[in-house]
Amino acid sequence: MFGIAAAVTVILTILIFATMARRLLGVQFSRFRTVAAGFAGMVVGGPLMLLIVSPDVDEPGLRPLAQLALATACAVLFAMVFLVLAEAFVPSGSVSPIAQWIPALRRRIARTQRYTKLTSIAVRHGLGPYLRGRQQTGPDSSGGRHRLARSLRAALDEGGVTFVKLGQVLSTRQDLVSPEFIEELSALQDRAAPIPWEQASAVLTAELGRPLDEVFAEFEREPLATASIAQVYLARLVTGEEVVVKIQRPNIAAAVERDLDIVTRLGRTLEKSTQWGRSLGIAELTEGFATALREELDFRIEAGNMATVVANARARRDDSVVLPEPHAQLCGERVLVMNRISGVPLRRAGGLLEQRGIDPVDTARTLLSCVLRQIMFDGVFHADPHPGNVMVTEDGGIGLLDFGSVGRLDGATRDALAQLLVGLNSGNAGMVTDALLTVVLQPEPVDEQQLERSLGQFMVRHLGAGSTPSAQLFIDLFTIVSDHGLSVPPQIAAVFRSLGTLEGTLQVVAPTFDLVGEARAFGSAQFAEQGSMGSLRETVQNELISLLPMLRKLPRRVDRISDSLERGRLSVNVRLLADERDRRFLTGLVHQVLLTVLGVTGGLLGVLLLGLPEGPDVVEDLPLYDVLGYAMFVLSSVLVLRVVASIFRNGSGDEDGRD
Q1: Which pLDDT does position 481 carry in this prediction?
Q2: 395, 396, 375: which is closest to 385 by C-alpha?
Q3: Terminal CA-to-CA distance of the chain, rounded, Å?
Q4: Which residue among 211, 227, 424, 538 sits deepest, i.e. has the most Cβ atoms within 10 Å of its Cβ?
Q5: For residues 607 and 591, is the Cβ–Cβ distance under 8 A?
Q6: To 10 degrees, the CA torsion angle through 511, 512, 518, 520?
Q7: Mind listing the pLDDT tens digit for each residue in 189-239?
Q8: Model confidence over 445-470: pLDDT tens digits?
Q9: 69-80 per-position pLDDT tens digit
Q10: How far apart are CA 246 and CA 244, in angstroms?
């Protein structure tokens, strides 16, 4: 019985100390952290009681009670100090709950093993100095950059699907890496050995939630195409429609997620420790890559992208390019079912075009116009139109496949791009400068006059009379952007990635095709159409409709303003601290300052009181000045600790329950 009573006493003491410490600090902490503080207070409070409290427990009077109160106050103060220091060094929410520690440890071990393997791959290919930050810049010569690019390509290829796709993304970022790296990384192929039909069918059945024969009348078990993330099969629905079924590889999402965690961590580390990482903005690049690849792993997103592109084409009454349509009721996170587009891949379509008597240049122009309309008018566009995603149909038309990677542009960005295209077509450097500054990021003030001069020279070089635009145009444009301290946001980079990939695709169809010239012609035709009387009338009508509510109120408001001006009663009312957030911030600041002043004042008073030589006794051998001095010390400590705790928690009183 004595042991049970002692245990109950200890538990109650811990809970009392913990509750008092949290209440006095005025900040909510997790239960685990609060109980730990109470335990720390008890560990300190027990010995203090033995040191402070008189050993003669039978002594009458208030002295033992005063000593007991002082020891208890010291224990509670120590619990408060424990909470403040814990918040300072291990902020709330920075450590996972205990229940997650074992899974987190397993993930850390797996990540460490993967880190070790990737590091050995990098070192084996000569990339170790760049990862450790010893090599701050790349080679100066073209030959050195070629060798480094080959080493990087080999390392990424050996690293697996996530790193192959990272290399493919880098190969499209002409604004970030040099042509030598573009050339090497473009050779990375998304390939993998096919998985057995049993594994693929298990994924398909799990996603559909019913037997395959209830959905498909026929299903070819040999994959039509194999990639690192998914395999593609041909099938026919019970309704008779021929479809293409895209099935994700089993467990690929977990492997990719593990590598994405490593990629983003590595990106942040390299940006902090290396000059080339900071110049590339590699942390933001890897975060954007991780987001895009996670979307690619969810086939429901691809189905939604596909449906959006199809709907936009129908709204424009554009049937120049054949687009697949998803069967939404059969699509899931790991399975995508869409209509089949019969034809041959673009690389092998030359004979079919000749057989049909179709001019390859017309085919290339049709594909370019489709992508440009998606970019300029729809705001949702195919971001990866490489030759494998383009088919020539049996009647000689063009089919566009694989909408796992799309770009999205808001209306303001599309308007700025349209202005940029008009400025390039008309040779107006000022218009190009204004449009460029609208779409790029400006970390620091820009010398607009110098930028406009550089863009003017750029247009004379690449778009002047007698010049032949080439891919160097994009490289020089990105060089200008970089030289003026600007950076290209991800959505604009997706546009140039799409156009850069499309240029290579169009060269497969028509080697002499001039993408820049055709794009300028497309822009001239579209803006001429928009400038027609009918289009202008519709634009003015839409603008007037949006302005109509304001126009209705305008005469009455003008009359009120003129009347107030005539009577001399026109004034401007400026309300300070009208925003609730400003008032809350100022109130909290004043509160902290007052508590700090009171705490410091209390501490000084405590020192003065304890320094007084004589004074009245509360009881025998218990001076009043000592009681007041220790009380002021306790009060001062509570106030100061309360301020410090609120600073570390930024005034938040939310209990997140994590530790």
Answers
A1: 79
A2: 375
A3: 35
A4: 424
A5: no
A6: 120
A7: 666 778 899 999 999 999 998 889 899 999 999 998 888 888 999 999 999
A8: 777 888 888 888 888 887 776 666 66
A9: 777 788 888 888
A10: 7
